[in-house]
């Protein structure tokens, strides 16, 4: 009697074969409806694609590998978050002023992760090729995960500190948060190829290191290990997103020569929009971290000027040059953070975080990092405001600032070649006058005026009576900011009093 033979062992598919099955055999042609009706946005931006199969994820990531990889990261991240909470990790940060950087991140950046999730889910639906569709699907899941992990991590601070209670509501209403919000709404209301240029390339590839690396390093320097862990968990995804962003740009440029001027215009636009958004990061790095890692000036040189040179030298073979006005951004690196922090100090009565004047030690650091500008232009301003504070005459700007129609930042920036003169640009469209903080923002408006005349400008909305009332307290209540608790100076705030009480207890009961 012959023994039963075991079934032949099936050969496992290679990674390349699995990726090919996932992305090449799902891209069928429709029969019930013509392809141009199923994918209505594939051509209207003017981008010409001749071979969708030419686009390939350089990681060849398949769904089973994706879930396995992400699940492992989740297990590690939540173990750290739980440990941080159980050991009262908030007591180990350098100074409670640091938490104000988290407040700005939670209200300004975390909602953008959710917007990116929706954006990638939307544009993934509108690509004809299966490869880009799969990549967008995975990135949409990544972005949703980032929003969730950031909320979970920072929810621990909400138990003890003020201003962290309603980040989503604040993101939709508070005046300075319209800057990041309008950035993403601009991208999400563009076509699918422009969206990828805006988010995958200009933001993720060109500028994301200026947001994540200094912020996560700042968290590590200031003892916030939970934030460091979610940062590194997200950063491994960001590295993949950056590579995909570069690949999509090269894909468009290689498909047809006619795509080059379209892509260049998008790079010009979205570099400038992203750079203006990062003004908030510049302020955070130089003023909001009690223990600093590097200045905004140094970060710009390292992550844009040096890395950008290599990137755009590579892209020059396609006919792509550096973004328009990049030299203006380099001129502004010596003053950007000072101009923004001074503005928030003047308007701290309407913010969901606290501000303060830099101490003498901190001003020495700023003087060393900005030897050509700080002592000459900004130190005298801070010393004047400190003298006013000491006389009981703390200065608050009682007016509403004029906003740039494009980036929605108050008109606080100075001329590229003259840091003592406010940069002010204007144009007329259909009988109305519109104002801008820079040539970059004016150019963006003039190319698509019908889009930007619809901007929801917070100051205009307050004047029109759409923000809860005419008084400061009415608007603050509409923002869901607790008046006298979440806003005003750090000195004398409930956050400071609680932190000082904890420090007193620790010094009285050393372990």
UniProtKB/TrEMBL annotation:
Residues 414-456 form the YHS domain. Keywords: Monooxygenase, Oxidoreductase. One of its GO terms (molecular function) is monooxygenase activity. InterPro entries: Ferritin-like_SF, Phenol_Hydrox, RNR-like, YHS_dom. This is YHS domain-containing protein.
